[in-house]
Amino acid sequence: MTEHNDVLDELNKHIPLREKLVATHKSLSEIFPFIVRIAIAIYDQETSVLKTYLHSSGDDSPLENYQALLDEAPSLKEMLKKGAPRVVNDLVTFEDGQHEHTKRIGRHGYAASYTQPMYNEGKFFGFIFFNSNEKDVFSENVLNQIDVYSHLISLMVINELTSIHTLTAAVKTTGNITHLRDPETGSHLDRMSRYSRVIATELADKYHLDDSYIEHIFMFSPLHDIGKISIPDNILLKPDKLDEAEKSTMETHARKGREMIDSLLDNFGFESIEYIDMLRNIAEFHHESVNGTGYPLGIKGNEIPLEARIVAVADVFDALTSKRPYKEAWSNEKSIDMLKQLAGETLDQDCVNALITNIDQIEKIQKQFIENIYS
After folding, report:
1. pLDDT class for 15, splitting at 50, 70, 90?
2. pLDDT tens figures, 311-353
């Protein structure tokens, strides 16, 4: 009887997806040392945008904080039409590529690549990229072995994203059970989650935010007001201004949201989801103000987690530009003026600037996720 060292033992541990990807890369590179990077891009079905998500190459990445329409990546789109992976054994053939992602990859000196589309129940949801520092290395024998790792990685990503989607579905279902309440329309959540992603992407360099952080901002921000499920209808749906007692009750939704998140994570066993504390912070602190006048703790400035400051700006901007029972929708111009007044007082200055700087992207989101009575 002999002992054997499991080269993928790290995958048995309760660790984030990023660490599992790095461990998988380490195992694969022991077989094929020329594979110097594994990267994952996620596809947003609603917007046709392909977004960088995770990679295994530490701080050395040519495509950090990058997104593009799938139509802007013709070789990847063609791969989907054919329904087969893509092998490029000499990336010199892409030297004259005009697309930004092609230029960045070329400048980084990769010599060859293998790209595998990811599917879940037959539905495309992203790509896995294997980059080599040597050309002419992806033989049929090599590819057969890499394919096993590719599907393993795909399953790990599916497990992570499915956990988040299950968590989101549980929240939505709970809300529907509670009198089919709809204080926040689906369109509002679609917009503000994408505004949050725009803000985070703009702040990435200054705050050293990686792709996974940005993507989790997008995925977690729609759960910011989960605690409102606990607020009585006569307060939650009241069209008039709340009195002081009602206001105090409404403000409990931030703390109750955090408690509900903790309970859901415990019940579903989702503690290992990467950046899960981000979800807690968004639920509890998105009503804190940078001048310390917010709730539930009255913390201020950088004491407020960045993700909560980002979501606060996205949420306020969409509330201003949307029709509510107590107000008409404001124009973008009027709403931006209000954000500027609030910046440095209740809202974070960097986050406000990040949204205003990217108003062209904000307007595209507004056009795609326009409000309607069926939202």
Report:
1. confident
2. 999 999 999 999 877 778 999 999 999 999 999 999 999 999 9
DSSP summary character for residue 7: T
The answer to whether the beta carbons of residues 270 and 276 sit under 8 Å apart is: yes
Residues with Cβ within 8 Å of 328's Cβ and at least 6 positions away in sequence, in order, are none
Tell how far CA 88 is from the center of its chain.
Answer: 29
3-state secondary structure 48-101: CEEEEEEECCCCCCCCCCCEEEHHHCHHHHHHHHHCCCEEECCHHHHCCCCCHH
- For CA atoms 182, 183, 189, 190, the dihedral sign is positive
- With pLDDT > 70 as the criterion, what percentage of the chain qualifies? 88
131 in Cβ contact with 37 (< 8 Å): yes
pTM assigned to the model:
0.75
CA gap 316, 351 in Å, rounded: 12
Q: How many CA atoms lie less than 13 Å away from 319 in the CB half-sphere?
A: 11
- Alpha carbons 196 and 92: distance in angstroms, whole number: 37
Q: Could you tell me the pLDDT band of residue 303, with boundaries at 50, 70 and 90?
A: very high
Among 174-183, 292-301, 311-320, 339-348, where is mean pLDDT lowest?
Answer: 174-183
**Whole-angstrom Cα distance, residue 165 to residue 159?**
10
Instruction: Report the alpha-carbon distance of residue 101 to residue 73 in Å, rounded.
Output: 8
Cα–Cα distance, 199 to 177 (Å, whole number): 33
Cβ atoms within 10 A of the Cβ of 141, count?
Answer: 8
Q: CB of 125 within 8 A of CB of 22?
A: no
Taken as a whole, the chain contains a residue count of: 375
